[in-house]
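[step 3/7] inverse_fold.run input=structure_tokens len=580
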């Protein structure tokens, strides 16, 4: 790759040719001139990980590399198939700081016996000046007999916070052909086409009295708090650096610059996104993560669960309950519904937007803004490509997060220009889907004994290896549900028992990729309600499941015990959400 010198490559530029190419054949791009960041991990290393398991490698080949050949896509689904297809991997890393000289690249395969702890790994040190390094793959299957599927790429640096632009390309063996990757021109955010695209995001300005009140407070120099709750996109996944380039920070900063530009303006950001979680968990977290246990009264609440709620057991009841929990607060915040989108143009807007129409709320759809123009050619005034918008199949790049922020910014601008709606919103109408969980409160180890009769039994330890989320404008992660109950091999075989009066109960337990965790059985009033397998998802995150939802508040007993054969395994009860 031609030496970039000391100038960082723009993430919208196309890939350059190898500086000293050892392979002249066309490559399949898996990572395409993408900004990455070295982040500290639990093992103390500073890395950027690019996950390949599940459908992620195939999806990257399809959307980043432009591959449509089903034979090639099928080969990428297994480690043995990948080695039959790929001769070598080209890695180009261009650090944005002069003093970063190299990065360690590792290709991890998942093993058959234990996906996350076995499997072959190949590593090579790459210069950080943009020069391409080749990692040659072997094709001796006997050497890789335990390998099952490609797991991830890891780029490791000597310190945290390092920014770099990276490309990863597969050079294929003879007989396989992939499309040539053409360079994308930079996204012109000043163009009329860009502005027209952004304007398509506004589904409805909704009833504007509350949002205009927040804008007027900001103009007067008064404190205004903007809160965001959602999944990994709200957390900032795909943005680099995450804390300052995510859509939440960018739209908060846009609001501040537009309405309260003074350096000391008292505009506050509350960001409460947690990756891989739906509104079913959001309703449990709301008081803690948004209201900060009553210390915060946000003026604006932006709800983003349009791509996370596919697994919501209530099919919208928890979402509407969360909206109402925010909307009915005594301090009367403006509630904005934001609909993000995946690379396959999918979201749950059709299910969730009717909630916004029902309560006449402002609604912004990133899907409506970008998906139509994704199909345009440059001659048809294509504004941004999928490769430029998406970091992976789920999350936006910096450019994508900028688009999301600008979509919210257009709502702010339209609201500011409009005359005020004098009447306040009304929420006295019957719910559209349901409001069963609007009064949900968090019960965990910190307050549990004040609410219920609890015997932790063998769940007496506390788990500290938890899902982390970067809250507010923090560059560091905050552990989720630290006040928990954990069963270990040494904590005894007795079950966890809890008795108290409630109408509804949501259990939050920890998913894990560690084989030290095992299955637990959950009993409610003596009946087996669920068998919870924390390895079903295979990564550390918070899993919310509904144990009961009754029309009246009654006393219930809950018992959680390790399943037969799993008595020496771990299981973590992170907490509960209950409706009194």
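[step 3/7] decode complete -> sequence:
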């Amino acid at each position: 790759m031609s030496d970039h010198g000391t100038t960082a490559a723009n993430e919208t530029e196309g890939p350059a040719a190898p500086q000293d190419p050892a392979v002249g054949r066309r490559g399949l791009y898996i990572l395409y001139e993408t900004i990455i960041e070295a982040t500290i991990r639990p093992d103390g290393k500073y890395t950027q990980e690019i996950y390949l398991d599940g459908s992620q490698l195939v999806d990257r080949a399809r959307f980043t590399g432009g591959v449509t050949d089903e034979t090639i896509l099928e080969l990428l689904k297994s480690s043995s198939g990948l080695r039959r297809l790929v001769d070598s991997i080209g890695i180009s890393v261009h650090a944005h700081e002069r003093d970063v000289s190299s990065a360690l690249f590792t290709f991890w395969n998942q093993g058959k016996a234990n996906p996350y702890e076995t499997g072959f790994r190949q590593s090579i040190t790459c210069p950080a000046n943009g020069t391409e390094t080749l990692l040659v793959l072997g094709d001796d299957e006997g050497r890789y007999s335990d390998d099952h599927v490609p797991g991830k790429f890891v780029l490791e640096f000597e310190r945290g916070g390092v920014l770099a632009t990276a490309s990863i390309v597969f050079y294929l063996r003879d007989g396989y052909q992939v499309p040539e990757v053409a360079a994308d021109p930079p996204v012109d955010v000043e163009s009329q086409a860009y502005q027209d695209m952004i304007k398509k995001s506004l589904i409805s300005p909704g009833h504007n009295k509350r949002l205009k009140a927040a804008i007027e407070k900001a103009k007067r120099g008064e404190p205004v708090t903007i809160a965001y709750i959602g999944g990994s996109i709200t957390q900032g996944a795909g943005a680099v650096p995450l804390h300052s380039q995510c859509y939440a920070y960018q739209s908060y900063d846009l609001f501040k610059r537009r309405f309260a530009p003074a350096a000391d303006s008292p505009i506050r950001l509350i960001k409460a996104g947690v990756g891989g979680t739906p509104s079913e968990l959001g309703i449990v977290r709301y008081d803690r993560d948004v209201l900060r246990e009553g210390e915060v009264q946000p003026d604006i609440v932006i709800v983003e669960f349009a791509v996370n709620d596919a697994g919501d057991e209530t099919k919208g009841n928890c979402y509407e309950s969360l909206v109402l929990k925010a909307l009915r607060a005594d301090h009367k915040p403006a509630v904005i519904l934001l609909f993000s989108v995946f690379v396959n143009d999918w979201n749950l807007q059709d299910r969730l937007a009717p909630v916004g129409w029902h309560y006449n709320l402002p609604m912004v759809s990133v899907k409506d803004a970008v998906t139509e123009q994704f199909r345009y050619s440059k001659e048809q005034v294509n504004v941004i490509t999928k490769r430029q918008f998406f970091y992976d199949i789920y999350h936006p790049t910096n450019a994508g997060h900028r688009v999301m922020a600008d979509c919210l910014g257009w709502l702010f601008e339209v609201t500011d220009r409009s005359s005020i709606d004098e009447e306040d919103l009304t929420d006295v109408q019957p719910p559209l889907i349901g409001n069963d969980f609007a009064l949900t409160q968090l019960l965990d180890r910190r307050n549990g004994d004040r609410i219920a009769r609890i015997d932790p039994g063998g769940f007496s330890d506390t788990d500290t290896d938890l899902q982390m989320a970067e809250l507010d404008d923090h560059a560091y992660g905050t552990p989720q549900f630290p006040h928990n109950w954990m069963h270990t091999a040494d904590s005894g075989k007795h079950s966890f028992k809890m008795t108290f009066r409630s109408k509804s109960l949501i259990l939050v337990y920890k998913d894990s990729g560690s084989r030290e965790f095992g299955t637990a059985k959950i009993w409610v009033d003596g009946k087996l309600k669920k068998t919870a397998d924390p390895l079903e998802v295979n990564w550390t995150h918070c899993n919310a499941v509904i144990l009961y939802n009754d029309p009246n508040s009654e006393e219930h007993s809950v018992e959680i015990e390790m399943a037969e054969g799993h008595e020496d395994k771990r299981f973590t009860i992170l907490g509960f959400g209950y409706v009194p």
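[step 4/7] annotate
The chain has a mean pLDDT of 92.
The longest strand covers residues 541-562.
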